[in-house]
């Protein structure tokens, strides 16, 4: 049964919050980029794809005057378009230039790092293995940097059957929002099969993805159910569910309190709560209030933690436009 704002008693005694959770620096920068562009240039500001994978954020920005489109071909000539945090392929930039669009790039700097790695390896004649999920915008953008040189590997099974033209010239990069454990297994297979494999000096999975998965792992020994706040198309949110289920703890991905089901809470004394890197804290607060309204008084972070990573806004937004 779906439950909204009723105030029935439940057996849950406590809610433990993971820390860190929620917005990462790249998401914060991307959302602020659209907000700042609206302030400086006025509505409409066009955004290619979802600026981040969270429907609440997209709805809020839409109400402020952002217009989300699937393609730069959907943007009127000469207008302003923002590229999302997930990055875009060079062909997208070329399409924007052909339509004389003004562009602001909100690509997360950590995604840009992966693009640069892939381009460098490809230019040096390597087959570039991209570990990631087919169809994800980040994967599409990275692949577009060197489509003739990049091959996608999604699983250990893919890695086991991979064949390349020159096993001595092979490198790998990864999507930034993958499962840390699964990616480690895939890379281990690649290293076993291709001893000459080159890789990034520092792993591509971003600090926020890693930190949020580790925070969930610390919760799992204390809870019977994990609630993950995030949208279904959010890769990093889905990976938090995967981490929990791999450890044998039930997990549910929800976008808002409207999706909470009291039936999930039978025989549950302690609920874990976290949120994906594109989910704002206001959604966490709403879930906490939902539990408070049902008599749960103990709501606290298991292990308080802080992240201090910060990315500057795109250069176009760090100055006032000319009159």
Structure description:
The structure is a single chain. By secondary structure, the protein is α/β, with parallel strands linked by helices. It has 3 domains: 14-23 and 207-301, 4-hydroxy-3-methylbut-2-enyl diphosphate reductase, catalytic domain (Cobalt-precorrin-4 Transmethylase, domain 1, 3-Layer(aba) Sandwich), CATH 3.40.1010; 25-108, Rossmann fold, CATH 3.40.50; 110-193, Cobalt-precorrin-4 Transmethylase, domain 1 (3-Layer(aba) Sandwich), CATH 3.40.1010. 36% of the residues lie in helices and 17% in strands. The chain is built from 10 helices and 12 strands. The strands form 3 sheets. A 5-stranded parallel beta sheet has the order 10-9-11-1-12, with helices on both faces. Strand 9, helix 9 and strand 10 form a beta-alpha-beta unit. Helix 4 packs parallel to helix 5 and helix 8 packs parallel to helix 9. The chain is flat and about 60 Å long. It starts with 13 loop residues before the first strand and ends in a 22-residue tail after the last strand. Residues 1-6 have low confidence and may be disordered.
């Amino acid at each position: 049964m779906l439950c909204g704002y009723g105030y029935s008693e439940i057996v849950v005694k406590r809610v433990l919050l993971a820390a860190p959770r929620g917005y990462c620096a790249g998401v914060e920068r991307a959302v602020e980029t659209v907000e700042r562009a609206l302030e400086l240039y006025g509505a409409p500001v066009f955004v290619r794809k979802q600026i981040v994978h969270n429907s609440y954020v997209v709805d809020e920005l839409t109400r402020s005057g952002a217009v989300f489109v699937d393609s730069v071909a959907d943007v009127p000539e000469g207008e302003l378009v923002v590229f999302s945090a997930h990055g875009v392929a060079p062909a997208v930039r070329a399409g924007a230039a052909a339509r004389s669009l003004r562009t602001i790039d909100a690509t997360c700097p950590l995604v840009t790092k992966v693009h640069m790695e892939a381009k460098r390896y490809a230019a040096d004649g390597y087959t570039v293995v991209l570990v990631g999920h087919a169809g994800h915008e980040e994967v599409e953008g990275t692949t577009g940097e060197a489509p003739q040189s990049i091959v996608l590997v999604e699983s250990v099974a893919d890695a086991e059957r991979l064949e390349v033209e020159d096993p001595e010239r092979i490198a790998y990069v990864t999507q930034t929002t993958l499962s840390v454990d699964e990616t480690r297994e895939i890379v281990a297979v690649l290293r076993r099969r291709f001893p000459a494999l080159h890789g990034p000096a520092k792993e591509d999975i971003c600090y926020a993805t890693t930190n949020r998965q580790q925070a969930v792992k610390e919760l799992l020994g204390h809870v019977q159910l994990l609630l993950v706040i995030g949208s279904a198309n959010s890769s990093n949110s889905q990976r938090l569910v995967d981490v929990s289920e791999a450890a044998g703890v039930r997990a549910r991905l929800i976008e808002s309190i409207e999706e909470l089901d009291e039936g999930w809470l039978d025989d549950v004394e302690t609920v874990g709560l976290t949120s994906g890197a594109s989910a704002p804290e206001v959604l966490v607060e709403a879930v906490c209030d939902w539990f408070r309204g049902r008599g749960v008084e103990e709501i606290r972070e298991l292990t308080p933690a802080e992240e201090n990573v910060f990315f500057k806004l795109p250069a176009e937004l760090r100055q006032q436009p000319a009159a």
